[in-house]
Amino acid sequence: MAYDKKQATEEFGRWSESYDRSVLQWLLFGPSHRSLIRRIDAVAGDRPITILDVGCGTGVFASRIRTALPQARVFGVDLVSDMLTRGAHRWRALAEAVHPVQGDSERLPFASGAFDFVTCANSFHHYPNQEQAASEMHRVLKPGGRLLLIDGYRDAPWGWFIYDVCVTYREGNVHHASAKRFREILDRAGFQAVAQKVHRGPAPFLLNEAIAAEPTPLYPAPHFHLRSPASVEHAAEV
After folding, report:
1. 66, 144, 195, 219: which is deepest, by most CB within 10 A?
2. What is the pTM of this model?
């Protein structure tokens, strides 16, 4: 049976109660968030920026962005109201700079060209229509803006076992895209300079970085370039 938004809403509604205490906060989410923040900082420096975090959950990442990058104005969007509600204390504490919105990744409730960065950390495999979600991420980026999308790396045996076997068994028919499939999705959505980087560890993940199409990018192209699954293996980073 195909994974759908009703399943996702029910699953994350149940998970919202323990989400902030999950072992994944240490095992996967923390390392993913640090990787994203390093890339945003390396690209944007101390310039004022606007960031949209798609699949923002309870606001853990939004809070970390504001701590590390105080010049950033952050918007978060999540399909599941229970996740946003569980993060109410964070939204209140960061009310002047972080703005949560309930919405669908396939129909983002923001104007075209609104953001310098779009981030998406470890939720893309839950999106039933991944190509439509990627197109929406492209739409809301400024020309030359940057997408930073992280999901589980399933192209090596350990990652395949974790994500295609264990996670699928627990969460249903979710889909962790291969590195090749990510490139196809982002190319079709209109992104340029697609780059990928593997981060090793107990829960390996793949960072996809891409620039919203325009003749002259607003920021320089990513410094890492992997164009095939085989080359992804050789560029792995612990």
Report:
1. 66
2. 0.84
